[in-house]
Amino acid sequence: MEDPYKRRFEQDRSLRDAARTLLQQDVEFLRGDNARRSVATRMADRAKSGASSAAEEASAFVSDNRGSVAGGAALAGVALAVALFRRPLFDLFCQISGLSFDPEQVSPPPHSGIEDEN
């Protein structure tokens, strides 16, 4: 009768040897691949991979949160419009409210505390 521990030991050894062989093949493949490609090419491939995974994650987020993304985009659009047209909007607000604003009459900021030597 065969010892079950010895049989198990031999199976484990054969699995270990197979795993070692696969690992060595992978290392050789990577070394050969790295030797053929320049550092810049590898960096570009890495950047493309990162960008594509980020795009996939963004797409998944947008599909899961359509309302929030649409609201954020609308808010960003309004903020951009206000930033671009702030002067005409301010003038329109002054006309509607009856207030007047003359930039020439605005007092300068308070003195900084540094005395003028001249």
Describe this structure in words.
- The chain is mainly α.
- The protein has four helices and no strands.
- The chain is elongated.
Question: What is the global morphology?
Answer: elongated
End-to-end span in angstroms? 111 Å
What's the overall average pLDDT, rounded?
85
What is the subunit arrangement here?
single chain
Radius of gyration using CA atoms only? 35 Å
Count the E strands.
0
Strand content: under 5%
Structural class: mainly alpha
Sequence of secondary-structure elements: HHHH
Largest sheet, described in full?
none
Q: Helix proportion of residues, in percent?
A: over 70%
Q: Which ranges are low-confidence, i.e. pLDDT below 50, for 5 or more consecutive residues?
A: none
Number of helices: 4
Summarize the structure.
With 118 residues, this protein is mainly alpha-helical.
Write the layout of secondary structure elements.
Layout: H1 4-36, H2 39-64, H3 66-84, H4 86-97
Keywords:
mainly alpha; 4 helices; 118 residues
